Structures are given as structure tokens and as C-alpha cells.
Amino acid sequence: MTYLEKLNPWCIVKLLPNMQHQIVTRFRRRSDAEAHIQVLRRLIPSVTFTIMFNPALEQEEHIISQ
User: Which structural domain range is residue 8 located in?
Assistant: First the structure.
């Protein structure tokens, strides 16, 4: 996990089939993510986006690397 990702825990996530997801972009503040997701929903109405708080990536990487 990069330092920039640690500073930006709010993610906009694109929901995919079979319980998969793809992180589209990250933000430092939730309000910034909410404003951006509104634009995405207007530009791409056929795709489902959601906002997710994701601070635990460092712990996940530590568990995976052991």
C-alpha cells in the first residue's frame, strides 16, 4: 500500500458480477467522493457505483505476505 493510498481511505467502487468489485478512484474526504460519484452516475448510468471506506488494506497486505 502506497503512502498516497493511506491518505485516501474513501474509495469509489464499481460493482461487477459474481461479487467482484473494482476501485475506480480514492479520496481523502467522503464529501469529495460523494460529489464525484454523482458525476459518474450521471455520465455512466448503466454501471453501479458505491462509496466504501477502506482503511484496512495495510493489515490485509500484512496477513497475505505472511
Answer: 3-65
Q: Whole-model pTM?
A: 0.73
The per-residue pLDDT for range 27-42, each reduced to its tens digit, is: 999 999 999 999 999 9
b/e map 10-36, b = 16+ CB within 10 Å = bbbbbeeeeeeeeeeebbeeeeebeeb
Q: Which residue has the cell 473494482?
A: 22
* Residues 23 and 10: beta-carbon distance below 8 Å: no
Short-list 14, 16, 17, 41, CA closest to 25:
14
